[in-house]
Target: SCP2 domain-containing protein
Amino acid sequence: MSKEDQTKISLELKAKMAFDELNKRASTQPTLVKKIGAIIQFDITKNGKFQHSWTIDGKQGIIYDGKPTEGTTAQVTITVDDNDFVELALGKANASALFAKGKLKVKGNVMLAQKLSTLFKEQSKL
Model:
């Protein structure tokens, strides 16, 4: 898939707006992202099919569009549906409940994924 196609898909996802808001907060408060201390990749799906990835780099305190940059590896990859991610980011859904229902999948260090609650709690105040 071309870079242009990937950009088009990401623009169609609701998660893009949530990541844009998270990124705004990260750019003004990088310590908030650094508290995570790990690289976490989000694979966003729609109707069960992979659509796009975003990365939260807690080591550098940045959030960016796409998979982890070359030379870095995600310690955790979270796969979640577009709608469920937005509900999670807004504080309307609970990650544990989504996980229990099989709507959120975690590959890697689950304990690191729990550190995201700080970032999402801040986001849900918006």
Summary: The CA atoms of residues 23 and 123 lie 10 Å apart. The two ends are 34 Å apart (CA to CA). Strands lie at 39-46, 49-57, 62-65, 76-81, 104-108. The longest helix spans residues 14-28.
